[in-house]
Write a structure and sequence with these properties.
119 residues; 3 strands; single chain; alpha/beta; 3-stranded parallel sheet
Length: 119
Amino acid sequence: MLQAIVSDEDGMESIAHRFLSAAVKLDRKPSKCIVFEDDPRAITAAHNCTMMAVALIGAHPAYDLGQADLAVASFNELSVINLRRLFAHKGSTFMELEKQMIEIETTPSRRKLRIDTIF
């Protein structure tokens, strides 16, 4: 069951505008949306909108879709668990970076012991 439809009749100028319009119609933050696409330009547009992107391999080879968060040969390969992992991974990556920044800031600098030998 479709909850919202975005089409050419909506008059959106770009792919990113279509994605953002869909997020508004669904009443979801773009960062909580997943775009399913088979075009590398659309995957880039999704990321520019802070959305996740799942690539369908077919029209373009897998190496052209490398920037996607997940690439599948068919939608039969997808499961709710796979899609949830996309968001879980995003959160853990953020927290890992946050942890690294805290460790860097709180770690006291160490002096290097230098020994000069005079002959």
